[in-house]
Amino acid sequence: MEERPETELISIPATPRVSTPEILTPSGQRSPRPTSKEAKSSNAWTPTSFISPRFLSPIGTPMKRVLINMKGYLEDVGHLTKLNPQDAWLPITESRNGNAHYAAFHNLNAGVGFQALVLPVAFAYLGWSWGILSLTIAYVWQLYTLWILIQLHEAVPGKRYNRYVELAQAAFGERLGVWLALFPTVYLSAGTATALILIGGETMKLFFQIVCGSTCTSNPLTTVEWYLVFTSLSIVLSQLPNLNSIAGLSLIGAVTAITYSTMVWVLSVSQQRPPSISYEPLSLPSSSSSAFLVLNALGIVAFSFRGHNLALEIQATMPSTFKHPARVPMWRGAKVAYFFIAMCLFPIAIGGFWAYGNLMPSGGILGALYAFHSHDISRGLLALTFLLVVFSCLSSFQIYSMPAFDSFEAGYTSRTNRPCSVWVRSGFRVFYGFISFFIGVALPFLSSLAGLLGGLTLPVTFAYPCFMWVLIKQPTKYSFNWYFNWTLGWLGVGFSLAFSIGGIWSMVNDGLKLKFFKPN
After folding, report:
1. Phi/psi of residue 210, each to 5°?
2. Which residues contact 87 (CB under 8 A, 6 or more apart)?
3. Please, are residues 395 and 65 in contact by the beta-carbon 8 Å criterion?
4. Of 154, 180, 350, 394, whose CA is between 20 and 30 Å from 203?
5. What is the CB neighbour count within 10 angstroms for residue 357?
6. Distance between terminal CA atoms of the chain?
7. If DSSP codes are grouped into helix, strand and coil, which group holds residue 69?
8. Mean pLDDT over residues 258-263, rounded?
9. What's the CA gap between 501 and 296, in Å, rounded?
10. Phi-psi region for residue 345, left (φ > 0), alpha (ψ -120 to 50) or beta?
11. Is the model's pTM score more than 0.85?
12. 108 against 184, higher pLDDT
């Protein structure tokens, strides 16, 4: 029998490489291969680290080919994630072609919004020192907890926690995780969407008044009718199918938020300050009343940092392999986003308090600009500022509503075992938009509860991630890491209770009503 060459005995065809083990979506989209920058891996050990060029150098070409093929196979199959087929039908996980740029757009769109405009109100009760100190501590704290969430997205090999509630269930247990995380995340999604309808509708009304002027003879719409106009526009934009498809809207929202935030504080500090301005913190005759106002002001600071309930959802839109995990581009995009968020929040808070002091109205810096300088600033600049606020609210509505859309469609697909049709998906989003509209009309004070709601939702940003890190990663007991995260977590819970009490007291006593603009 003729002996066959050695190369034919050991050479095998190369295993086709795929960029990610994710399944195809109904639309046929597949996650792209990582870019050249993302392909630079860390020095961490992997199961295939031993198959290195130095190891392969003394081996002949046929054997080298076999080992290289084996390495590629292990890198792909070794990170094979057990996926729920239902995820391919849901708007958050339908498309997995996200990248660091998308992450930056989404995080910036979710992190900068109308809540930043009321930060000078908190400074009016805290003063310079405590205001800057509390804002700085809150910024660093929430940046650390964001890093925790990004790391925990794939904390368990073969499992991706695509939603905040899923990670809470993995850390606290199935039932307790739902109880702890469901209410604050639902409010931060649905409640913020309702507040955006109120803010956007009232801002559209003021934009119309500025553009139309005193010579306008048309019959203006009422405030509720402007709410309806804003809701209708939001519903039209919400027909985009999934989270990755609104990346362009998130970019528009991020650019408009940065622009109007900069315009508001620049216009404020460039004008002459009111003659009776004072920088002494506002207080009430009784010490207990003043303490409650301070707690409510700290709740406003906490409420200015939102978006952590969307971090896992944003990361779920990215491809992930053993060699190129999704946490790398996610953290890169988050760092860029939160740099710009700091460039928006700190100037608004400091510049707004410098320009108006404790004369700052409860509506925030935009209300102060309109009240003190509406006759000093050109109508064109004022109109442009208000228009940018409307664009930002429309964009923020989409990303904050996406978890609600995902929940609706998850319930439908779990019962029918098939993806939502275009008509069913559109019906869910129309229903959600008008439910938010009716809630906003029935509870028009919802946008004024920044202090209370900042306290109620504070654990999502400041407390739960620290507990999750300890329970899932299980650092060495009594180590610095163990003590540090338990301490931060319980401090967050304590602050949540204190800020909520301060917010409730302020509502009952009408000490701090945070209305953006009071409708006629």
Report:
1. -70, -45
2. 93, 94, 162
3. no
4. 350
5. 19
6. 99
7. helix
8. 92
9. 8
10. alpha
11. no
12. 108
